[in-house]
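Lecture notes, continued. The same structure-token format from the folding unit now serves as the input rather than the output. Read the line below as a description of shape only.
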């Protein structure tokens, strides 16, 4: 039997960066073909189609680039690819993965990977990450699982994964639930069944929609929210204290703005859910709900921003936004 066909699309990032000298900064230069040819044993796992889509550091990726990458991946599947691998920088990898997971409707695996060390660095991790990602994308057990992030032989679901360290090769983690599996001895081994995925179908109508992410902090009174609204943003996600709390002053500004644009409250802590009925003080989750705010549940602020952007870009009403975020308030692998 011939190995399955896997399409590898390169977007840039550390995994493809080289430097002219030891004291020069690394820049994205290597093509997708160069990346895959540097991986020993890849040909025995899959028939690879490699294509360079972009050569950008991941902070320069735009939402439009993610949508274009989605279109490319869908064309590859239509042409017979059994799975897709995208390589990109790790700074925005968790966000790309989540947005793609909201939009990916195919059973074929879509796997993202990258690297924390450049190709010419001792112990470069890019080749091993590509090998593990292709291994997952080519395996039948990966079908129907949506979008995954594979780094250091560890498999993460897009909805949970986050970058947790600025420099370590062990930077990605999945708070609360842990990783979905590992690649061991050349095979992916999954720790749990495929997750219950968000099932809404999105058709982006207005990609120019803008959603702001604002973090609250000690002494914040909410003037930033007014500035964001005046700047023409269509929605706001607040990275709030603890389980979804803000100051009383900020709560008053949220109440004033909520009729004009959706405001979603997320937790800035990095792990855990927003509360629903624990606290009742001014600026608490119960108070903010009365004032018209929505809550992100288990979604962190960055992913909540992407979900709100996608909802607004498809023309969703406020009620539709509330319904969508309600899914993430209760979602778990046991549902």
């Amino acid at each position: 039997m011939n190995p399955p066909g896997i399409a590898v699309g390169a977007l840039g990032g550390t995994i493809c960066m080289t430097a002219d000298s030891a004291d020069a900064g690394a820049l994205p230069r290597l093509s997708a073909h160069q990346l895959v040819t540097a991986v020993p044993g890849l040909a025995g796992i899959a028939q690879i189609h490699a294509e360079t889509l972009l050569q950008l550091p991941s902070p320069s990726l735009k939402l439009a680039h993610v949508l274009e990458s989605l279109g490319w991946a869908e064309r590859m599947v239509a042409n017979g690819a059994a799975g897709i691998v995208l390589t990109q920088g790790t700074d925005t990898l968790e966000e790309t993965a989540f947005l793609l997971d909201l939009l990916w409707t195919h059973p074929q695996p879509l796997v993202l990977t990258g690297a924390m060390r450049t190709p010419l660095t001792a112990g470069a991790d890019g080749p091993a990450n590509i090998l593990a990602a292709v291994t997952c994308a080519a395996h039948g057990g990966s079908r129907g699982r949506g979008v995954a992030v594979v780094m250091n032989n560890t498999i993460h679901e897009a909805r949970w994964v986050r970058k947790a360290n600025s420099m370590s090769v062990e930077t990605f983690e999945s708070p609360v639930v842990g990783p979905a599996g590992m690649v061991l001895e050349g095979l992916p081994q999954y720790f749990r069944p495929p997750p219950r995925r968000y099932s809404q179908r999105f058709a982006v109508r207005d990609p120019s929609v803008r959603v702001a992410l604002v973090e609250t902090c000690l002494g914040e009174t909410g003037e930033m929210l007014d500035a964001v609204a005046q700047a023409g943003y269509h929605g706001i996600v607040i990275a709030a204290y603890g389980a979804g709390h803000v100051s009383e002053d900020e709560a008053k500004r949220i109440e004033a703005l909520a009729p004009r644009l959706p405001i979603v409250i997320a937790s800035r802590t990095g792990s855990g859910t927003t509360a629903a009925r624990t606290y009742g003080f001014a600026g608490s989750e119960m108070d903010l709900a009365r004032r018209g705010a929505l809550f992100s549940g288990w979604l962190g602020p960055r992913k909540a921003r992407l979900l709100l952007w996608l909802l607004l870009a498809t023309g969703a009403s406020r009620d539709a936004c509330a319904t969508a975020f309600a899914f993430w308030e209760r979602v778990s692998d046991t549902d």
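Point for the exam: The chain has nine helices and 16 strands.
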